[in-house]
Amino acid sequence: MSILPKGTKLDRFIIEKPLSNSGGPASVYLAYIDGTKHKVAIKVVNTDDNSATDEDALLQWEAHLLRRWDWRHPSIVRLMPIMLKDRRSEYVVKDMDVINHPWYMVMEYLRGNSLAQNISVIHKYPLEWKLELFYQILLPLALIHQKGYAHRDIKPDNIVFRTPISPDRVPDPVLVDFALAKSGEEQHSVIDYSYTLEYTSPERILRAMPKMDIENTEPENIQASDIWSLGVVLYEILTGKPLFKGGKEKIRTTVLREKVDMDLPINDERGHILAALIRIMLNKDPDQRPNIKQIMYAWEEKFLPPRIEIA
Q: Distance between CA 129 and CA 143 in Å, rounded?
């Protein structure tokens, strides 16, 4: 499906412009509710109407998770109910009035852009702000892990700020894109084998490799894979640059077989603590990584709140 033009109407929502991922399996658009100034974000599957696609299933799975009352958290993106003509409300809908009849869901509009879009600015911020940012990212992930799930696609593109960032204001990151989240009980090949190489743990890369016999491998430690991704994101927050660079084969080889080299620009005790924490989060053995609870307790012990002094 081509990019939806400005003015396209999905039920009572009118498209203004693309926000991200346009042209991929799904696109996110800025829209507003007809007759109001209320802004929303709409995730639309770039689907082929001739048959059901994996992307359709992933969107429905994501909506199923985000609509749950016990997943409500200020730092987890909020889903909006879509009111249908028969007065029912749904959280994911197939629009029959738009070409290819795409599935879509409606979310709150987060105005602060993603961590990926802000990383060059954050690089200039005080270390204390970065420490608080990471703690705020830990909070929603801790809720998900406590419920037995893992996000499984933690990366700067999937951490979006609710409001524009400022060095003198507490950061308000929000986790988005739960299409690959799972508890370990679900069986879906696309969820199992999809990943973002630069932020993915070695065990997930191995499981997705051709001819891998999943039935004869160890069960996936889904939450340990999130910890690896967090370690990579933490390095990027602290340095302003990606940990893994180069072509896909070089990155894959580094993640699977080589020692991860780090150079943190922090020449004090905090730098030593952070480097040690990142190294253990990036242990190639998932069973040797700390869990989210251990990371939170260590963070609170080593970096006492409040981490940002607000005048």
A: 22
How many domains would you assign to the chain?
Answer: 2
Q: What is the pLDDT of residues 152-168, one digit of tens each?
A: 999 999 999 999 999 99
φ, ψ (nearest 5 deg) of residue 90: -130, 165
Same domain, yes or no: 137 and 261: yes
Please tell me which residue in 11, 56, 95, 153 is annotated as part of the active site: 153
Cis-peptide, bond into residue 306, ω within 30° of zero: yes
Instruction: Please compute, for residue 131, the number of CA atoms within 13 A of its CA located in the half-sphere on the CB side.
Output: 22
Q: Is 56 a catalytic residue?
A: no
Q: What is the pLDDT of residues 196-238, one digit of tens each?
A: 999 999 999 998 887 555 554 567 789 999 999 999 999 999 9
Are the C-beta atoms of 225 and 181 separated by less than 8 Å?
A: no
What Å distances lie between residue 210 and 194, 207, 214, 244, 248, CA to CA? 13, 8, 10, 23, 16
φ/ψ of residue 34, rounded to 5: -50, 130
Residue 287 phi, psi dihedral angles, 5° rounding: -75, -10
What are the b/e assignments for 266-295, b being 16+ CB within 10 Å?
Answer: eeeebeebbeebbeebbbbebeebbebeeb
**In terms of domains, do 157 and 14 share one?**
no
C-alpha dist (Å) from residue 244 to 105, 116, 197, 232 = 33, 15, 9, 8
The pTM assigned to this predicted structure is 0.93
Look up tokens 């990151």; give the residue.
Answer: 173
Burial status of residue 107 (CB atoms within 10 A of its CB: 0-12, 13-18, 19 or more): buried
State the Rg of the chain over Cα: 20
Q: Is residue 246 part of a domain?
A: yes
